[in-house]
Specification:
It is built from seven helices and nine strands; from the N terminus they run E-H-E-E-E-H-E-E-H-E-H-E-H-H-E-H. A five-stranded parallel beta sheet has the order 2-7-1-8-9, with helices on both faces. A four-stranded mixed beta sheet has the order 4-3-6-5, sandwiched between helices. The termini are far apart. The relative contact order is 0.23. The mean pLDDT is 90.
């Protein structure tokens, strides 16, 4: 596999990484394309196959694992697998794009390990675990049990932050967006207006 740059944004759920990634995708000078992850979990709300995720049956996901079709994959929760298909990254590189990921911490670190010279790995740090819980409850997309699972996982994920190239503290969204834009622009060599 060869091609453009890889930009990873990882964080506990509710940290704001998705908002940051969406903002960066709207900046044409960065020449970014979003890597759509595959998952075995059911769709939520208005999610669409091929836009939000590549939704797969559990057996289909496991077959892709056996066939070595993933750049990285992980069982995030029991029988809920997430992964990055090699074909997805190759497709975006063939379009001449830099690939941006909104991805689980473990997956992000695996990609960084495979492509150390062409990857920028950014960890988005929330103001606090309490703030994360508030943000997750505001979403109203998951049960209290699921939220509690995500909060428990967040403590483990926060401990991995030092393994990333950069940490953005998302205490103020405008500042976090500005910092993320500068980091990515510098990494991909984009010309930005001063």
């Amino acid at each position: 596999m060869k091609g453009g740059k890889l930009i990873i944004f990882s964080a506990p759920s509710g940290s704001g990484k998705t908002t940051i990634v969406r903002h960066l995708l709207e900046q044409p000078e960065l020449n970014l394309a979003f890597s759509i992850s595959a998952t075995s979990r059911p769709r939520r709300g208005k999610e669409k196959h091929g836009e939000h995720y590549y939704f797969m049956r559990l057996s289909e996901f496991k077959q892709h694992i056996k066939d070595d079709d993933f750049l990285e994959w992980e069982e995030v929760y029991r029988d809920n697998f997430y992964g990055t298909l090699k074909s997805e990254v190759e497709r975006l590189w063939s379009e001449g794009k830099n690939v941006i990921f909104d991805i689980d911490v473990a997956g992000g670190l695996r990609i960084k390990k495979k492509f150390p010279d062409k990857t920028l790995a950014v960890f988005v740090k929330p103001p606090s675990v309490d703030e994360l819980k508030i943000r997750l409850k505001k979403r109203s997309t998951e049960s209290d049990d699921k939220i509690n699972m995500r909060i428990a996982k967040a403590s483990v994920e926060l401990a991995t932050a030092p393994q990333f190239d950069k940490i953005i503290k998302n205490y103020d969204l405008d500042k976090a967006l500005e910092e993320a834009h500068k980091l990515v622009a510098d990494f991909v060599g984009a010309k930005t207006e001063a």
